[in-house]
Every structure is written in structure tokens, then in C-alpha cells.
Amino acid sequence: MSDSADYTFVCPECAESMLVNDSMRDALLENGCVICSAALTTDAFSTT
Ligand SMILES: [Zn+2]
């Protein structure tokens, strides 16, 4: 197992999508979308 992407993130506001790992997911949930700063919930992430 590598430390690569574990989740697919899709922003509900700007539709930005990216693959993220667990720590990146936590950061996004805490800080919001990196593109549009929308507040995010776990609904924005799906496991791959
Ligand atoms: Zn966004």
C-alpha cells in the first residue's frame, strides 16, 4: 500500500475534483475548498 490517494474529492460549489489522501481530506474539511473556499462536508468525498 502506498500513501497515495484514498478519496475522490469533488467540490459542491466549483466542481473542482482531485484525488486526496486522508490527511488532505482532513485539511479540506477544516479549511474549505482550496479553489473557492466553500465549506465542505464529508459528502464531498467518496472512497475510491
Ligand atoms: Zn470549490
From TrEMBL:
Record Pfam families: DUF7560
InterPro entries: DUF7560
Domain of life: Archaea
Protein name, per record: Small CPxCG-related zinc finger protein
Biological source species: Haloferax gibbonsii (strain ATCC 33959 / DSM 4427 / JCM 8863 / NBRC 102184 / NCIMB 2188 / Ma 2.38)
